[in-house]
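User: Can you predict the 3D structure for this chain?
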Amino acid sequence: MNILYGGAFNPPTIAHFEIIKVIKKSFPNDRLILLPAGDKYKDGNLIEFKHRYNMLKILVDKIDSNIIISDYENKIEKFIGTYYTLKFFRNPHFVIGADQLRDLHGWINFNNIIKENKFIVFPRDGIDMHKILSEEPYSKHKNNFILMDNEELNVSSSDFRFKKQENVLDVDVLNYIKSNNLYEV
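Assistant: Here is the predicted structure, written as structure tokens:
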């Protein structure tokens, strides 16, 4: 099975790193693909793709495992929604946080996304994942969701970008940021 973990990774935090480790421990024989958002993604606060890619590589190099960092979303001409990305990767298990589960109904092609795909959902922000999956339209597709029961990792990239909380980053990622003069650090 392929597991796809997408995100801005702007920058990748210790929470991202922990999720990567939990995935590899929970699904040791499966291939994990990290998918940083491309430069054309709608968020204007993204630093260049190459830096986010390199920071993920720093984290991946600390884990002796079968992890791939994909540049797929940086090669596409225009971001047209996660649905098509999941199709490209042949409907992998897609890693999301509970906050994304809560907001999934607003995604492009939402109904097809939850009908045709499998998800691995990590707890976040005290969100009741079971309650969300008991409601329509999720309830008829609740078997497409694997709910992880690990400790919540309520760390966000914005904690670093806006508050400059260095403790939310791996020390080597922080050193990369400083040596490349990123995020006005």
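The domain at 2-179 is CATH 3.40.50.620 (Rossmann fold). The mean pLDDT is 93.
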